[in-house]
Structure formats: structure tokens, C-alpha cells
Automatic annotation (TrEMBL):
PANTHER family xref list: PP2C-LIKE DOMAIN-CONTAINING PROTEIN CG9801 (PTHR21586:SF0), TIPA (PTHR21586)
Signal peptide: none
Protein name: PPM-type phosphatase domain-containing protein
InterPro entries: PP2C-like_domain, PPM-type-like_dom_sf, PPM-type_phosphatase-like_dom
Transmembrane stretches, start-end: none
Source organism phylogeny: Eukaryota, Metazoa, Ecdysozoa, Arthropoda, Hexapoda
A Pfam family matched in the record: PP2C_2
Residue ranges of domain PPM-type phosphatase in the record: 170-488
Organism field: Parthenolecanium corni
């Protein structure tokens, strides 16, 4: 009988043809970068800070209020929690942990180029108002394709309206137990939501820390609380005054207050949270992407002209190697009541029609890292080089597809599908090794005890380190910038 060790060694020898996508272009962009041949592209700046006055104030153009498409997941996403949430406003005493950073931000001008907040601006978002209802598509309702929903959830009536230009998906990269037929790490502890209007979008993603039901609840509660606040504050029918990016950042910070409080209310544990609001700029054909994040769920922009840039870059030090097991920050009861906001960061960058804005959990971003992905022929690289090569790897996938032969990604749905396909293929070797029945039963076919299973797993740890990828939950949510038509 073939031993477990022999099976693993044999499988590793077959990796290049059976499991890992051919890295046909890796040498090209890796070597060009390391040899200094990468063409410098004068991409739009990414500005970041800890409070709204640290960022430039830009006027927002006219906004449409009706929701054209909305999507959340996995398995119902934010709709599965808090259907009768308590009202949260900026005056609630429970949300002081973030308001301490924003209530007095206008007292002193942090940046000489940024004017302090006026009293009018600081109060503009209070109180919350109901957002405009999502439109009811009469033809679909008549045909029975879309059931009429009378209750609003997080500012939206219809959450099952995906669009090629506004899309998200989640999957698990963990192995399937050959006996129970259940994936390790169940349930998926990620949650996403996207709400798109004619000329704007809200993208939110949370990654529950560790495994289990309470991590899953934390992610779903965070997304629910955040999206609910953003829908009702930015798109309130009662708000007729002009918005600036300063108002948007205040709304983002307070949406994180709402998210944290809802986690506590739902008795969830810890989660990362990243939210991006894409809005048109006044008197311009361009848009602005405003982002708030805590933890290691990252946001990006892809432009056919400039490639991929990371909006959340200011939330982590790209010049130092970090422990990828450390989320860097989290909402939820880190110390029993309060969150960990060490890397809470605001960021903004200009985007153009046709650009793709997307957010990923670390199950995707870590697997795009050249070291985790074990790029062929990769020499020892510095931390900042790893970061740049990760962006180049992502750009290459978007331009050339997983096969390297195209077609290139042109819409949000294709981007989500392509990235999840890549990380699923990359991690196939690890899953194959861990799904060997010999890890779960003895030679007589009897189930091994948990302690016996752990012993056998330790025997293959060294072999697992030889194959690429990291097992995790993987989620991507994406939006194609520009005016959106009625869902197709």
C-alpha cells in the first residue's frame, strides 16, 4: 500500500500540470520589475489619513437615490441578521469610540491645505433618515420572477439583483472532509454587500476573525450595520444640501460605529471591515472612491491605463514583512466591549468610468502574494517588492486571465469570477493533500481519533509547505465605475 508520505511526494511532482495554473507571464512582469524595466505610470494619487480633515475636501456631484441593483452573500449575507435592529444615530452614547476621533476634528486644522469642519458640516448627518426605496421592476413582478418584499433591510428592498457591473461572491478554499463531506472552517465567515445606483455604489466586505458561528455573525452584523447607515445617511431623501468628501468620510466613520454596535447586539465576535463609496465629482467626468477600513480586507482600483493600485495601502506598512495571521485591527469585543482600531484608515483616490473598484478578503489578497503563491524563479524579495509584485500579479490576471491567453476582464462580474477561480486553482494542491482519506481512517478502515488525526497531519506539514497557496475563506466584491442602466 502506498504510504501517505509517498502519496504527497508524488502529488507534488505533478503540481505543474495538474493543479496550479501555468504561470506563463510571471517571468515577464517579475523580471521586468526586479530589473527596473517596469514602465512608470503616473497613476492618480491615493491619499489617506485617520480623520476627515487630513484629506482634501472635494465636492460631490448630483446623486440618484433609487437603487438599481443590490447583492449580498454568502447564504443571505447581511439579510440573515438584525431584522429588527435598534435605531442607531450619531448621538447614541455607545458609539463614542470612533466619534472621539471625529467630534472635534474641526477645532484645529490638521493640514494647512484642508479647511476645518464647520458646525453645519459636523451636524449634517444627524438624524438618520430613511433612504429612497429600491424600484420595483413591474414586469418581473408580474411574471413572478421577483417576489414583492414589503420590508426594507439595511436600506434596500430587493437584495437579489446582481448586475455584470456590480457583483460579489464568496467561496471556501478549505479542504473537504472525505468522511463528513463538510469543508473545514464552516460556515464561511466572510460577508459582502454591494448597492449600486445610477451613478454611485457602496461596496462593503467583512472577514470574521478565526472560524465559527460567532465570527460569521460578526461579519454579517458589521456589513448590515455599515450598509444601513451609509444608505440612510448619504442617500436620505431629507438631505438636499451639497455633499463633500468630508461628509462622506464622517458618514463612513459613523457607519463603523453602527457596525460595531450591531456586532455587540448580535453577540458576535471579531471581524475586519472595509467599505468603499464611489461617487461622481461635481463639475467633472471623474468619480471619487472614498474608503474606510480596519483589519486586512483590502480595496483596489484597476484601470486599463494605470494598472492596479491599492486604496487601503495606508492601513499597513508595505516596507515591513507582516505576520499574515495578524488582522492588524478588528471591530467587535476585542477586550470584551471595544474594538481594536490600530490601523483604522480613511483613503481616497480619483477613478474614471470603466475603472474597476474591488474589495477582497485576505483569502484572495494573500494568495496573490508572490511568496505565498510560490512564483517560479522568484528570488528573495523585500517587503515593498512583494507588495508591488502582488499588484502586478493581480493586474496580469485581469488583463490576461488565469490561462494567460485572455480574454481580459471587462466587467465587475468577470473580475470576481477570475480572481476566485485563480485562488481556487492555486490552493488545489493543499486541499488534495488534506483530503486524503488516510488522514482520517486507519489501515482497517476505522475512524481515527482527533489526537490520531493531529499526529498524521503533523507528518505532512513539511510537505504542505512545499505547495503554493493559503487555505482560507475567499471573497471579492466589485463595481464597474460609471452610469449604470437598469439591471440586465
Amino acid at each position: 500500500m502506498t504510504s501517505l508520505k509517498q502519496k504527497v511526494i508524488g502529488f507534488i511532482r505533478q503540481l505543474s500540470v495538474s493543479s496550479v495554473p501555468e504561470d506563463r507571464s510571471a517571468e515577464n512582469f517579475i523580471q521586468n520589475y526586479l530589473k527596473g524595466k517596469e514602465i512608470h505610470r503616473n497613476e492618480p494619487d491615493i491619499l489617506h489619513g485617520r480623520s476627515p480633515p487630513e484629506l482634501p475636501r472635494r465636492s460631490i456631484g448630483n446623486l440618484y437615490h433609487s437603487v438599481l441593483c443590490a447583492m449580498t452573500g454568502p447564504d443571505g449575507g447581511l439579510t440573515t441578521v438584525n431584522k429588527q435592529e435598534k435605531h442607531l444615530s450619531a448621538s447614541d452614547p455607545d458609539i463614542n469610540f470612533i466619534d472621539d476621533q471625529t467630534d472635534n476634528v474641526g477645532v484645529q486644522d490638521i493640514n494647512s491645505n484642508v479647511a476645518p469642519l464647520s458646525a453645519k458640516e459636523q451636524k449634517k448627518l444627524i438624524p438618520l433618515q430613511k433612504s429612497e426605496s429600491a424600484p420595483v421592476y413591474q414586469e418581473e413582478l408580474k411574471s413572478g420572477a421577483v417576489p414583492e418584499i414589503k420590508d426594507e433591510i439595511a436600506g434596500v428592498f430587493h437584495w437579489k439583483h446582481p448586475h455584470n457591473r456590480a457583483f460579489g461572491a464568496s467561496t471556501t478554499l478549505y479542504e473537504l472532509n472525505p468522511l463528513t463531506k463538510i469543508n473545514a472552517g464552516e460556515p464561511i465567515a466572510d460577508c459582502f454587500a454591494i448597492v449600486a445606483r445610477k451613478n454611485s455604489a457602496i461596496l462593503v466586505l467583512a472577514d470574521g476573525v478565526n472560524w465559527g458561528h460567532k465570527a460569521c455573525i460578526a461579519a454579517r452584523a458589521a456589513v448590515h450595520g455599515c450598509v444601513d447607515y451609509l444608505n440612510k445617511s448619504i442617500f436620505s431623501l431629507a438631505v438636499e444640501e451639497e455633499f463633500t468628501t468630508t461628509d462622506i468620510f464622517l458618514s463612513l466613520l459613523r457607519s463603523f460605529n453602527s457596525a460595531h454596535n450591531l456586532i455587540l447586539q448580535e453577540e458576535g465576535m471579531l471581524t475586519t471591515l472595509t467599505a468603499v463609496v464611489v461617487l461622481p465629482l461635481a463639475n467633472s467626468s471623474k468619480y471619487i472612491a472614498c474608503c474606510c477600513n480596519v483589519g486586512d480586507s483590502l480595496a483596489y482600483v484597476y484601470s486599463s491605463r494605470y494598472g492596479v493600485r491599492e486604496i487601503t495601502q495606508g492601513s499597513h506598512d508595505v516596507h515591513s514583512m507582516r505576520d499574515m495571521r495578524d488582522a492588524l485591527g478588528a471591530l467587535g469585543p476585542v477586550d470584551g466591549q471595544n474594538p481594536e482600531l490600530t490601523n483604522l484608515t480613511l483613503a481616497m483616490t480619483e477613478v474614471e468610468p470603466g475603472d474597476l473598484v474591488f474589495v477582497t478578503s485576505d483569502g484572495v489578497s494573500d494568495n496573490l502574494d508572490p511568496v505565498i503563491g510560490k512564483f517560479a524563479g522568484l528570488p528573495t524579495v523585500e517587503a515593498y517588492q512583494r507588495h508591488r509584485l502582488t499588484l502586478l500579479r493581480t493586474e496580469d490576471l485581469i488583463r490576461n486571465g488565469v490561462s494567460g491567453k485572455g480574454p481580459s476582464v471587462t466587467c465587475a462580474k468577470d473580475l470576481v469570477t477570475s480572481l476566485l477561480d485563480f485562488v481556487t486553482r492555486l490552493t488545489a494542491a493543499k486541499r488534495h493533500i488534506l483530503e486524503d482519506v488516510d488522514l482520517y481512517v486507519n489501515n482497517e478502515g476505522k475512524d481515527l481519533s482527533r489526537s490520531e488525526q493531529r499526529v498524521r497531519r503533523r507528518e505532512i506539514n513539511g510537505k504542505l509547505g512545499l505547495v503554493p497557496g493559503k487555505l482560507d475563506h475567499a471573497t471579492v466584491v466589485a463595481y464597474s465605475v460609471g452610469e449604470l442602466d437598469i439591471p440586465s
